Amino acid sequence: MPRTRKSPIKPTAPVTYLLHVSLDGLEPPVWRRLWVDGGFTLNALHHILQAAMGWTDAHLHDFRIDGKRYALPDPEWDDLRREPQVDERTVRLDAVLKVGLEFTYQYDFGDSWDHHIKVERANSVEQAYGAGVVVDGENACPPEDSGGIPGYQEFLDNLRESPRCDEVKEFLAWAGTDFDPTRFDRQAANAALLRMAWNHWVALEEA
After folding, report:
1. pLDDT digits over 162-198, tens only?
2. By residue range, what is the domain housing residue 189?
3. pTM, rounded to two decimals
4. Measuring CA to CA, how many Å separate 168 from each of 132, 142, 156, 176?
5. Which of 28, 71, 86, 110 is 20 to 30 Å from 63 by CA-CA measure?
């Protein structure tokens, strides 16, 4: 008798996950801790991470979880990579996440901002919240197109050692003179996440 493929077991109650997200390779570290509903897709998680970290969603991205690559289909890029991938819009978080899992989210394949994500907790809830919630975090997200980890770390080092040097002045003239690498506004991040939910930019998928 041929074996029949079993359908994935679906959760009996909504699940919410506590994620710790950090940018690899920066000192001092840039990180966020946030709750997300298991009914979100990986694509929704992408948008939530953009708002929580402070990015502007101006570049490509992907997830790598348990040896698989998840991303949005992009024929031009996919032809260059020639690497199997799963459409992130079709995958719910509660189908791939579990406590203790560690995975990566890469944003901007040029600057290669690699985010290390760990699933710290999973709670069953009576009703899904429907929006991501940031509970903690430190330091500002780097400005877009700032040269990846090497370029931005050089700025941080110069700012600490020679805050009035020409390199720091040039960086701030480009990034904005009010840019503060130590600033993280949790209230503003959560306001952005709530706007996304209210405007249905992210939504829970039915099991």
Report:
1. 888 988 899 899 888 899 999 999 999 999 999 999 9
2. 15-141+182-198
3. 0.90
4. 34, 14, 9, 11
5. 28
